[in-house]
Write a structure and sequence with these properties.
alpha/beta; 7-stranded mixed beta sheet; 6-stranded mixed beta barrel; 38 strands; 18% strand; globular
Length: 888
């Protein structure tokens, strides 16, 4: 601690902090217009100047560090005069109408506090307003050249959109397009708006509808990163979301979806009344009738065909509590283990591989380990678009000196700053990763001590991997042998090394094997059980980790525990034993429906038809069902084409509960607005139907907190995560007791009870989906920054203006060979179906490969994808489809 004197009073403050931080710690708040806690101090505005004993001139408090014995004049005549002079200089060119119209911006409050009133004069700025962007209003007449927008765009997001031109009074801050913000490289994260003290950059929604009247802390409803945010509401409408500085994952940052894409909540086509199908039309009904009909029809099917004729799908967009109730309803009220969720089609291979080798089917480390790693491996993931906050953190880690290895068929944005980028042919992850392991073993780059103490079957693995030379892998993968060797040396020689992976690894016929091969690399190099290391799946949807972990999985109960291991404990708590018959996962349910063995499906927050691969087979399966219950906010494609009962659910802004992010962190979701119309939270709908099915005592919950208490009782590794402890931040499991701090790094001493983890010997099984003369191109699919999975939410927001349609992206050489031009409609055919999309030329793609997003029902890209599945868990192969492309 340092003892300082401020305005004659002695204070003890933390040693080494800035004078500005010390003043704030002591309850003093000098103006600091260029200061943002997320940024390095700039000292540009001179509004925080103080006098320091022994220093002749005033000093910017944000740049000076405290020292023991320092004498600080914070409120005397000299610093006050300097601050006033600085504010008067800024006000001399400021448009007075801005102050009158919006008095609550920080700069406006400062001017009022100092009795400074801008007046219209020849120096007043009159820059034109840029209203081109759907979310951000640009009025640079209000700019005071604090440069916070420039620095935060560079140092937090890493986008470098805002550029400084000119000097002195000719200084202008302009987007990198040189024209409008809409035409620039802006990714609409809103960080510049959040930091701007004047409203030169402002949220259009706030400018048009007024500032929020109330803020509610909650968790983002989009990807599995788990950003906490403040939901701003006015007149019971969501206006905008804002980042939170103390959010453990996002640390004061958000992406375009989390910050802005909220309009779906109030969309005109949102369904807020229960519906029953009558012929080809829907009939609105009350909740009592909807619940009674749902229960009656399910009871009838169970009576005629048996409990296993019914399947239930939990939702990655619903809370942990709601997914717990979904699997409990399936097992207790219906009597079946036919329960699953969308983890099946994305990261079930990750869970199976991680659990099989390490004992726990979840990320080994935390997002904070990004900053601790010296080397970062990004494999089959595109974080800057699909997990933007993670992507921004990786980008800043590279700027701070971390080395980056990217493995992806496309030259994704991170590849541009990578030390090494490998672009394997789609479907060849296993031979590439095996070849990396070969180099690590053959060149003795292994962590010998770690392997000796914590790795099993090394001798057998060494004999197996000897055959997987880079020379063997090169013709299979299209990656030169020398590049494979360089990448292996980069990863093995840069400890601690952190690996993150995505659906480019898992959505293959060898998806589980691809993750096992990544685990092998971490085991060989000792990159497990330590900070800055690990194997970490980037989960796609906000609660896909939680949905599966709560038991929406046919062979596992809550906590990811196999049925046989947990049945006795669960039976003791429930008062009834869960069924022992094997359940079907999602794809098996589709097979069973086509075969006539499954008669009813209840899909909660999951557009099965639009999302599943090989849409023709899904359509055939859904058409064969006697009963399709859809519980959602909108008439999804599943509901529109095949639904019989529609139960209108709330959004996450309208209910309480918890989500679980990709790093095993459980966080609160809080109600910010009332449920729209007659919509209800999923937990309440499930309890209503559970009671109607005759299981009233099992569904007598009065709140999500009561449900969570039962989850804690049934899940030993989560027993310490109380509702009260989640009030001020999240906790990562395992957290077995209420005095446990949570676990940031798994496997520090052992692997889920085992001292050693085995290396997996994985041979290459090529996908049957191969190119030929009729289908000469390989198509891979994925998400874009602007949209989210089936597009149910984002396509009902202005994000649809920023990215209106799915596109087929193609290498220019392929387009030239086919005589195709950018922007024209092309017909894409596969062995399984066809789709029509506009063409976009993209130099990030290698010749012979194409890429398409799958968000819109208008394009319906999953008409193209194949019926092939991962051999271990049945995840579909979205990433490899042979196609032909011609002008539509």
């Amino acid at each position: 601690m340092a003892r300082v004197t401020i305005d004659g009073a002695t204070h003890e403050v933390a040693d080494g902090i800035t004078v500005l931080a010390a003043l704030r710690q002591c309850g003093l708040a000098p103006p600091a217009l260029c200061n943002d806690a997320r940024l390095a101090a700039a000292g540009a505005c001179r509004t925080c100047v103080v006098g320091i004993g022994g220093v002749a001139h005033p000093v910017a408090a944000c740049l000076a560090a405290v020292a023991d014995g320092m004498m600080i004049d914070a409120s005397g005549p000299a610093p006050l005069a300097h601050r006033r002079a600085a504010l008067e200089l800024l006000a001399a060119r400021y448009p007075p109408e801005a102050l009158a119209r919006e008095p609550d911006h920080p700069f406006h409050r400062l001017l009022r506090a100092h009795d400074i009133v801008p007046t219209l004069n020849p120096r007043t700025r009159h820059d034109p307003v840029d209203d081109s962007h759907p979310y951000i209003r640009v009025d640079m007449a209000r700019c005071i050249d604090c440069f916070r927008c420039v620095h935060i765009c560079n140092d937090l997001q890493g986008q470098f959109v805002w550029q400084i031109q000119g000097r002195g009074e000719d200084t202008r801050i302009v987007p990198d397009s040189g024209t409008t913000l809409r035409a620039s490289s802006c990714v609409s994260c809103g960080a510049c708006v959040d930091t701007c003290p004047t409203g030169a950059l402002a949220d259009r929604a706030v400018h048009e509808h007024g500032a929020p009247e109330r803020w509610t802390r909650s968790t983002c409803a989009y990807c599995g990163t788990g950003c906490e945010l403040a939901v701003g509401t006015r007149a019971e409408q969501v206006v905008v979301c804002a980042p939170l500085l103390d959010a453990p994952v996002s640390k004061g940052h958000l992406c375009v979806k989390g910050r802005y894409a909220t309009a779906f909540v109030h969309a005109a086509d949102r369904v807020t009344t229960p519906l029953l199908r009558q012929g080809d039309a829907w009939r609105e009904v009350g909740w009592d009738e909807a619940v009674a009909v749902t229960a009656e029809r399910l009871r009838d099917i169970v009576a005629r065909w048996g409990a296993d004729a019914v399947g239930v799908l939990g939702s990655a967009r619903a809370t942990n509590e709601e997914n717990y109730l979904a699997q409990k309803l399936a097992r207790v009220a219906l009597g079946t283990n036919n329960v699953d969720c969308c983890a099946r089609v994305c990261h079930a291979p990750s869970a199976a591989a991680l659990k099989g080798q390490l004992g726990t089917g979840a990320a080994t480390n935390s997002f904070d380990d990004i900053e601790r790693a010296r080397t970062i491996l990004v494999c089959g993931a595109n974080p800057t678009e699909n997990h933007p906050i993670v992507g921004a953190r990786i980008r800043q880690a590279v700027r701070d000196g971390a080395r980056l290895l990217v493995i992806d068929p496309r030259r994704i944005e991170l590849a541009a700053i990578a030390t090494c980028h490998l672009a394997p042919r789609p479907g060849t992850n296993v031979p590439l990763l095996n070849a990396l392991a070969h180099v690590i073993v053959s060149e003795e780059l292994v962590d010998a001590a770690f392997v000796r103490e914590r790795v099993a079957e090394f001798t057998d693995f060494r004999a197996f991997i000897a055959a997987w030379t880079p020379q063997r892998a090169a013709p299979l993968t299209g990656v030169p042998a020398a590049d494979i060797r360089a990448a292996a040396r980069l990863y093995a020689g840069g400890a601690p090394a952190l690996a993150v992976h995505g659906l480019g690894v898992t959505e293959h016929v060898q998806g589980t094997d691809g993750v096992r091969a990544l685990v092998n690399l971490a085991l060989l190099t000792g990159n497990l059980g330590k900070p800055g290391t690990g194997v970490n799946p980037l989960r796609g949807q906000n609660n896909v980790q939680g949905a599966a972990h709560m038991g929406c999985e046919p062979s596992q109960l809550t906590g990811g525990v196999p049925l046989a291991d947990a049945a006795e404990r669960v039976a003791a708590l429930w008062g009834v034993a869960p069924p022992t018959r094997p359940g079907m996962h999602l794809l098996e349910m589709m097979d069973a429906a086509r075969d006539g063995r499954l008669k009813a499906l209840w899909a909660i927050g999951y557009d099965v038809l639009l999302t599943n691969a090989h849409a023709a087979a899904t359509r055939q399966a859904l058409a064969a069902l006697e009963l399709v219950v859809v519980q959602d906010m909108f008439l999804t494609e599943t509901a529109r084409q095949f639904g019989h009962i529609f139960l209108p659910a709330c959004s996450s802004f309208e209910k309480d509960g918890t989500f679980m992010n990709a790093e095993r962190r459980v966080q609160r979701v809080r109600r910010a607005i009332p449920p729209q119309g007659q919509s209800r939270p999923d937990w309440r709908i499930l309890c209503d139907v559970g009671r109607a099915l005759g299981a009233a005592r099992h569904f007598a919950f009065a709140s999500p907190e009561a449900v969570w208490e039962e989850v804690r009782a049934i899940w030993p590794a989560g027993r310490g995560i109380t509702w009260a402890r989640l009030e001020h931040g999240g906790l990562q499991w395992p957290c077995p007791s209420e005095d446990h701090p949570g676990t940031t790094v798994l496997h520090t001493d052992s692997f889920a009870g085992a001292a050693r983890a085995p290396l997996a010997r994985i041979d290459y099984q090529p996908t049957p989906e191969t190119t030929c003369a009729a289908f000469p191109l390989l198509l891979t699919t994925g998400r874009t920054l602007w949209h989210f999975n089936a597009g149910t939410m984002t396509l009902r927001t202005p994000n649809a203006d920023l990215h209106p349609v799915d596109q087929l992206e193609m290498a220019p050489a392929d387009a030239a060979r086919l005589g195709l031009a950018a922007g024209e409609l092309v017909r894409v055919r596969s062995r399984h179906g066809e789709a029509v999309l506009p063409l976009r030329l993209d130099t990030r793609l290698a010749a012979g490969t194409c890429f398409a997003t799958f968000h819109s029902a208008a394009a319906f890209v999953n008409e193209l994808t194949s019926p092939l599945r991962d051999a271990v868990v049945g995840a579909p192969e979205y990433k490899v489809t042979a196609v032909a492309v011609a002008r539509a």
